[in-house]
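Researcher: Next sequence.
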Amino acid sequence: MRTRFLWLVVVMGLLGAALAPGAAGQTLPKPNPDRINAFKAKLAQISDRYAKLSANQRMLLDGEKRLGVSPQVIDKLAAMAASGQTVTRKQFSDMMNDAQKLAGVASVNDPSTDLDFSAYDGVTQSETHTAMCGNQVVVGFNDSGSILQTIFFGSGGLSFSGAAVSSDGGKTFHDIGAMNPGPDFNNVVSGDPLITCTDSSHFFYTQLFETGSGSAIGISSSSDGGNTWSDPQATVLKDFSHFLDKPWTAIDPSNTQRVYITYTDFDGSRTSPGCGKQSRTAIELVVSNDGGQHFSSPVIIDEQCGDNVGVQTSHVAFNSHSVAYIAWHRFNPTNTEVRITHLSAGGSPAPSVAVDQKVFGGDILVVLGGSDFETLEVEEDLAGQFRNFSGLDLAVDHSGGPNDGAVYVTWDDGRNKSTPDLAGFSLQDNPPDQPAVLVPFSPLILTAGSYFYTDVMLSSSKDGVHFSPTIQVNSDRQPKFGGGHDHFQPAIAVDQTGTVAVCWYDRRNDPKNFAIERFCAESKNGNGWNNFRVPIAPFAPLHRTDFGFFPLGVNPAFMGDYDGLTTDFTGKNKGFIGAFEWMSSGMNPDAKAFSFQ
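Model: Next structure:
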């Protein structure tokens, strides 16, 4: 993992904020020694468990890569608080809508707090998910600012998750701050948010959850429209030989007491019945029939054994008759498939089918280091060196209209164009344990030799088994000569009229394939697509602006793995709303929301 930056940067950035002249300061609370020691032990444990995973598991795992925080950094932060220094901190209260005043676009998080803890580094909001019931909208997002908020001002565990609430259909939002991690010092709620609702009062927040007993998928509930949340509860809990990652959730529209949650199990126990002593990755499902209070034992959807295969990125959605569809990526030795299965309430999963093969986009970066240049990491990055690994989404029509029951699967795909990409290198800070005299640049980053430009693809089915030939959703075509354009991380939804919508990040208007815009498209049946641009300014994929950088903040190669798109679950309103990451005028990542019909 590319941990280039020294922890001195973290401390100096925070001290800069604490000592900033003229700032309206607030004295940091005195730290609780037991709480600080619990944080250190938990974070060290996560790092140790990650190191024991197999190479392919470390490459596919996403969530807990963000939690490789040094225990020594916790000591330094605690010392700052104990010293009685002050730090600028605006109240996490009413959101200042910085209001671009653009049709349908609203600020989600409160950008006025981005530099509260440091004049040098900001904080990042990314990887958004949205739920809407009536005029009540809740957006969840990964929020590195929540780490500092809970370290300095919390009384329980740590949070990497934030949320914002709208009561006017998404026109304006109120940032509620860090998601409640619960009172246990061993608790860490670590992002990958999924938001669902049953009515305008009752919302659910599903996310990654580390506890004192193991790795979990947590769920929190709200009965006041998302303004306050319960302590997280484990929907599934596994011992410390497992990492659980990339959850997805859906509520049955025919029975709102039925909640399905899928996730990836990175099993490092090497004792599973299905894989024996081999490493194991599996897509699994847990089910609640009482509104999320209790969940079933895990059901295996797909299981892969060994170091050359894997699974990741499951999504789940219901039709009008309590049938759930689950789509995911399966990594084979020679290709990657988008696969899907379905199951009725109380039933077993049907045999899965391949929707299509997927060609990953961007370039493969091979990170080498050490005296013998062993491989440290392999990842798929788009131009600007940010990860794009989980571009997949699923929606099912339950409108009751002529296409009721139609299943739509969308993903980003590099099949249409590639160009040679010469191997290169970049100068990095040497890891502390590697003598600098061995090489002038270490680690060394090499590209694999070709860059694949991504398009948004879609396939549909009337029965979830037989899928149509794959079509392209974005209306522009890759040029025959020269470079191409990336379109990535599509999100999909179907509203109460049966209209299908997809939104994604798009580079079609930049000849150099760097500046990013947001595009959406609508269709009546999943065939003809009307593309339109979201009215925001283009932005460059600038990273490493996060406080302290990785590992305390956000991995500099991370721009989120998804952004959800939704419609009114109650069926009262047509149209769509979805949040997404956007670099503000200050070039700090924030979350915006876009509504359209």
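Model: The chain is about 10% helix and 40% strand. Helices lie at 7-18, 33-51, 55-60, 71-82, 145-153.
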